[in-house]
Amino acid sequence: MKFLPFxxxxxxxxxxxWAQEGITVCGLADNTELFASLADDPTFRAKHDLVSYxxxxxxxxxxxxxxxxxxEGTAYYLEAKGNSNQxxxxxxxxxxxxxxxxxxxxxxxxxxxxxxxxxxxxxDGKVATSRELAQQYMQSVTTDRASAxxxxxxxxxxxxxxxxxxxxxxxxxxxxxxxxxxxxxxVGCVMYYGMPVQEMEEIKEIETDVLGIFxxxxxxxxxxxxxxxxxxxxxxxxxxxxxMYEADHGFxxxxxxxxxxxxxxxxxxxxxxxxxxxx
Length: 279
Hints:
This protein has one domain (4-276): Rossmann fold, CATH 3.40.50. Helix content is 43%, strand content 18%. It has helices at residues 4-20, 27-38, 42-46, 99-112, 131-140, 143-157, 170-182, 200-203, 223-235, 261-276; strands at residues 61-66, 72-78, 86-91, 116-120, 162-168, 186-192, 210-215, 240-245. Helix 2 (27-38) packs antiparallel against helix 7 (170-182) and helix 6 crosses helix 7 (170-182).
């Protein structure tokens, strides 16, 4: 399936035509399905390696909160040290809310000082231990349910909360969507090699700055895809800062085989500076 990157670009350029022909292409929903379809490509799956990591001495706790669809959502939660209305929503990779993401949430909580951190569970309790399970779980995510979880987290934070978001891979795309869902409460968005939205109407709904961390050798979220997104953001008069690293998809994950220590450190330093300016 080496044609998939080409097919992806073709899909991105064809959305307007599809809509004119009466085919349903609905912003976030279409974007969810588009990214999930990448998991059908064995080359894409092969880019995701999982090195076993067990997180000990957890500092956070699992919480539940009501979601607008009448269900409950869960998150790994770390409370701010003092009185704070600032929240960071952390969204996991295609593996799920595993120990690696909990470790990242704790690191961000420590480095940001007085911020509530909620690492959301978009998979509703499922955590993948193989590529096959990760593919299955990611492709079973519906836009309605994921949006309900995010909206529930925003409601849990409260009407006065200032909300930033961060995510990687699958979570990178959902970090951007979470920013759209947070509306005027959004104060910052960090997306690591995630699928950006392509509909200009969706881009116009982004109410905050975006920091995009991408990989030059990513054959799926390609430099061309990133360039088109950056151009659309500028056309919509939205602020975006993009950093393209000489690395591959997943380079910031120390539990993966494509981890690039230097690139990951630089990206994290930029992420922390970006978030500290807004939280």
